[in-house]
Amino acid sequence: MQRRHQQTSNHNWLYLIIVIVLGIIIYGAFKLGQQTTAPKASPSTPITRAHHHRRPHFANRQTPKTHNSPNSEPESTRDYQSTQAIGPYSISTQELNAHPFHYDHGNLDTGFRLQLDNQSGQGQIILFNYDSNIQNQYPVHYQEIATKTLQLQNSAEFRTVKVNTALVFDEHPQKVYYAFKNRFHLASVAIPTDDPQLYREAVQSVNDK
């Protein structure tokens, strides 16, 4: 009787162990099933950000303007078109227009005036003789030239001068006067004579407008 009771008790422990093991297996299988059926977390996709390239902003950006002046012309043409004094012996149009010129220091009744455009160099020479009340005008133009040496004769005096400024008669291009600064630092004009090698001098009078 006692032996049968002991066998029954052993079977009960065995059943209990089996139940516990089965429970563990079932629980493990359940957890594994949850892991296999759960959605897999996809690897995070890197976010591509659009890069907007902003152009640099320049406030009121303007193209520099080029200002042309007579002195900005090429050297090859400037010598003949500029109205500014550019040679070492040059006389500007402003200086030549300032006062009339007279052939004789003691006689202010005969001479000429120059009216030259300060931009183009074009203008006219007005020959006057107050004694006879006659005035004649001729178109001329201002021209810069390479340094030229002239011989002047006034009365019995001879002297040489260097010039860079010519006044060319438009209707007679072979007729040319030359302007220069005299020994008194005033403007003078060399006028051709019958002798092609000699010129006479007309001096600007600052006392006569």
Characterize the structure shown:
- This protein has about 210 residues and is of the alpha+beta class.
- Helices cover about 25% and strands about 35% of the residues.
- The chain has 3 helices and 8 strands; from the N terminus they run αααββββββββ.
- It has an 8-stranded antiparallel barrel with strand order 1-2-3-4-5-6-7-8.
- A hairpin with a 5-residue loop joins β2 (about 105-115) and β3.
- The longest helix is centred in the N-terminal third of the chain and has 36 residues, at about 1-35.
- The N and C termini lie far apart (about 165 Å).
- Residues about 40-80 have low confidence and may be disordered.
Shape: rod-shaped
The low-confidence runs, each spanning 5 or more residues with pLDDT under 50, are: 41-82
- The share of residues in helices is 10-25%
Main structural class: alpha+beta
Could you give the count of β-strands?
8
Read across the widest sheet, the strand sequence of neighbours is: 1-2-3-4-5-6-7-8
The rounded Rg comes to 55 Å
Topology summary:
Layout: H1 2-37, H2 75-81, H3 93-98, E1 101-104, E2 107-116, E3 122-129, E4 134-154, E5 157-169, E6 176-181, E7 187-192, E8 199-204
Antiparallel strand pairs: 1-2, 1-8, 2-3, 3-4, 4-5, 5-6, 6-7, 7-8
